[in-house]
């Protein structure tokens, strides 16, 4: 086997160092960023594949750092998870999303469900169910108006505890959605063992659905399986009319992606919803 040359090794080390430094810089900038009001949420529409009606909205976190400028969640969420700041940040997201939903009560958005992303750390926090319950009460929301998106990683981390927490959340009436389905540690047993009601098919499969027979078959199989387990199905990353048509024909209930709408501000979402009334 060919050994990595000294040059390659150095490039690798430099990249590692840059990544570590990047993480440290982000970590430093994250401290105080909540108090400084540097975070905000944008909202992405999820529509009924059949009628086009706006059904759910996913809240996505944005950070405009005073030190670093806009930082993408793919960069700062992992750092926030490593440092534990994600708990405080996740609590802020929960409250902010519920408050926004509360202000939509008397609007065209009054019967949408709001989805928020929840990390493993939050779910492991003993006060989490109470936190969710209080956020609902404070903002006068019905529990079915809130859905929590979890990744498969969350499920395996501390399976017994997670199962108990999810059972409590379901008893409360909150929806549980499995995010990025198909990318992780997918095991069929998760789908029955945990109290889920929605599967989100990852963008990686949706992306190739028109041109790759393999992706097409895979998505078809996931949808069939979801149907037989009584789960709702959402396709992520729908970027073309062709993808939307195929997914609808396969029986995928909901669509999310740039073809429908980008993540947008609350005002823009209201305008989007206005156009969809009666559809
Ligand atoms: P995710 O939960 O899978 O969110 C979907 C991501 O795909 C979002 O990226 C969204 O902007 C993007 N997206 C949506 N439709 C399309 C499309 O048609 N094409 C393409 N190319 N991309 C599309 P974003 O907002 O950058 O978020 C990235 C990830 O950061 C999220 O992935 C989620 O894992 C994490 N994240 C975002 N907000 C939060 C949060 O409040 N809490 C936690 N724990 N994680 C969050
Ligand atoms: Ca998500
Ligand atoms: Ca996702
Ligand atoms: Ca993702």
Architecture overview:
The chain is an alpha/beta fold. Helix content is 50%, strand content 19%. The chain is built from twelve helices and nine strands. The chain has an eight-stranded mixed beta barrel with strand order 1-2-4-5-6-7-8-9, surrounded by five helices. Strand 6 (175-181), helix 8 and strand 7 (198-201) form a beta-alpha-beta unit. It starts with 5 loop residues before the first helix and ends with a helix. The model has no long low-confidence stretch (mean pLDDT 91). It binds ligand C2E and calcium ion (3 copies). The site of one calcium ion has 4 residues, from strand 6. Residues 23-277 form the EAL domain. This is EAL domain-containing protein. GO terms for molecular function: catalytic activity. Keywords: Membrane, Transmembrane, Transmembrane helix. It comes from Duganella flavida.
Feature tags:
alpha/beta, 9 strands, 50% helix, 19% strand, binds ligand C2E, binds calcium ion
The biggest beta sheet is recorded as: 8 strands, mixed, barrel
Strand order of the largest sheet: 1-2-4-5-6-7-8-9
Portion of residues within helices: 40-55%
Q: Catalogue the unreliable spans.
A: none
**Small molecules bound:** ligand C2E, calcium ion
How confident overall, as mean pLDDT? 91
Oligomer designation: single chain
Question: How many individual helices?
Answer: 12
Radius of gyration: 20 Å
Q: Beta-sheet strand percentage?
A: 15-25%
Distance from N terminus to C terminus (CA atoms, Å) equals 61 Å
The helix-and-strand class reads alpha/beta
Counting DSSP E segments of at least 2 residues, the number of strands comes to: 9
Succession of helices and strands: HEEEHHEHHEHHEHEHHEHEH
Q: What's the overall geometry?
A: globular
Organism: Duganella flavida
Protein name: EAL domain-containing protein
